[in-house]
Amino acid sequence: GILGISGSLRKNSWNTSLLRVAAKELPQGMKLEVFNLAAIPMYNADMEGASMPEAVVEFKSKIASSDALLIATPEYNYSIPGVLKNAIDWASRTMKDSPLNGKPVAIVGVGGMMGTVRAQLHLRQILLHNGTMVLPKPEVYIARGWEKFDMHGNLIDEEARKSIRTLVESLHAWIVRLNPAV
Q: How far apart are the first and last CA of the chain?
């Protein structure tokens, strides 16, 4: 299955909504589970090892058992949100034992006038350093989120929905290409 991660903690987050849309657009036989980052504490190296927080242990376990990650990131101050960077920092420890090593990942994001172009670029750099296998194409940057979602957080833009469908189909092909046994 795919582990969905939203970089937003907001109740009516457009990026979390994208993950729900992606779950409905998956190729047959695939499943997506969304992990909420809210319980993960700020990274502190003193809490590694035996005193690792339970939320971090669960997060790393879910990454390890997934076939791939689908990360939906908003853009805050030209980059990814701190909550997402913090979760990646936890998941990367220790580098030799990180469940991120070799993990297929796709990135999507919805934001303002420019979508999430800069945030996704930063996220690609971070994930590259952590040994993930980021899907190169398609790049899905959904701009003007307020025009794409209704007041209840439902995606109402069919072009955006098609982009999400293409992304998850490409992620499925990427998973199979990297791990033919799946």
A: 10
Amino acid identity, position 177: R
Count of Cβ atoms closer than 10 Å to residue 69 Cβ: 24
Smallest CA-to-CA distance from 77 within 129, 25, 132, 114 is with 114
d(C-alpha 61, C-alpha 72), whole Å: 20
Helix, strand and coil in the chain, % to nearest 5: 45, 20, 35
How many angstroms separate the CA atoms of 127 and 125, rounded?
Answer: 6
DSSP-H helix ranges across the chain: 14-25, 54-65, 82-91, 117-129, 145-148, 158-178
Which amino acid type is present at position 83? Answer: V
Block means of pLDDT (10 residues each) for the chain, length 182 residues? 96 93 93 97 89 94 97 95 97 89 96 91 95 95 94 92 96 92 72
User: What is the Cα–Cα distance from 90 to 100, expressed in whole angstroms?
Assistant: 10
CB 16 within 8 A of CB 84: no
φ, ψ (nearest 5 deg) of residue 141? -115, 105
| Contact in structure between 155 and 163 (CB atoms under 8 Å) | no
Q: Give the C-alpha separation, 81 to 48, whole Å.
A: 22
